[in-house]
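Subject: for your reference before the review

Hello V.,

The reviewers asked for a structural picture of the protein, and I figured it would be easier to keep everything in one thread rather than splitting it across files. Below is the amino acid sequence we used in the manuscript, unchanged from the supplementary table.
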Amino acid sequence: MNERINQERPDTVSRKNGTDVPSSSETGDGQSVTDSVSEENEDERHSQTTCPECHGRLRRADDDVDAVCDDCGLVVSDATLDTNIKLYTPDGTGGQDSRVGPSSTNLLHDKGLSTVIGWQDTDAKGNALSGEQRQQMRRLRQWDERFRRRSSADRNLMHALGEINRMASALGVPDSTRETAGVIYRRALADGLVRGRAVESVATAALYAASRMNGVPRSIDEVSTVSRVEQIRVERAYRHVSRELGLEIPPTDPRSFIGRIASDVECTDATEQEARRLAGIAVENGVHSGKHPVGIAAGALYAAAKQCDESLRQADIAHATDVSEMTIRNRYPEILAATDTEDE
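And here is what came back from the structure prediction:
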């Protein structure tokens, strides 16, 4: 009878109290579960003692909740660290995702590091706000703007940098030159050079100095044309800022203006190349010393047109360069004389 029971129930054996005991096969399954749990606990203990960045050893003080890596110095708290990269769109347009926002710039008074409350009256899920919530957000934007310009230096920078951006856009100045102008104005403001002078005059002087330092062909006449102050005030501010800040501004090369003038008068490439050569000879012989560089460029272009047998009027060049015809008539004989001396 007992043998028949044992044959019918091979997976269990009977105890004295009548309970069933797992057989060897069930014991093996339980052991595998126990081993897997032990491995998970071991992995968890290993993750708690291993740096997630460099896999070094974490050291934890008895009274401290944070652990410090001995190798890289990473501080690991008890909270799980999420090291995955999460991409998002800063402007919320759904375009190209990025992990960071725009880079810092000297063309903003706070260098673009402050936060700005968005103009969209929606919540995080895109749902429209109620009327009361919209009114609250408008008030928050007003206070945020007030805090951003709470000091006189902030208001001064906002006005000056806005002027630099406006004038640079009108002149077609590249962004690198705008950044340089922003740095120059910040230095002038920090050294107290703006005190007693119009903000617009110092901002215009900073833009002109940056153009010369970066080799951008813009004369002081052109820069003053888009400024809100008179040219004489711009010239005074430029001399004052460049002297006090010790700016290393190289002399303006007349050849840098020839390409733009040649494009305006629509002359041939041969005339433009000859004008560059003549202007270079004039610079080497010191003809440009004490003279307006645009006048030298205009005289070189007119002299080149004469040598290349191209019909180019002085009035057309004068209109393109904003110099008088008398200046062109005075400059081009001097340039030709320097060329004859070079040939001899």
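For the response letter, the relevant points are probably these. The mean pLDDT is 78. The chain is about 55% helix and 5% strand.

Happy to draft the paragraph if you're swamped.

O.
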